[in-house]
Amino acid sequence: MAFTGVGLGLRRPHMEQVAALDAAPVPFWEIAPENVVGQGGTRHRLVMGILERDAVLTHGLSMSMGGFDAWAPEVLDRLVAFLKATGTPWHSEHLCWSSFGGAHTHELLPMPFTREAARHAIARVKALQAKLPVPFLLENISYYAALGQPEMSERDFLLEVLEGADCGWLLDINNVYVNSVNHGFDPKVWLTGMPLHRVAQMHIAGHTWQEAEGVLLDTHGAPVVDPVVDLMAWVLPRIGRPVPVLLERDHEIPDLAVLLAERERLQSAYEGALTGVLHA
Ligand SMILES: [Fe+2]
Question: What is the Å distance from ligand 1's center to 174 Cα?
Answer without folding.
Answer: 8
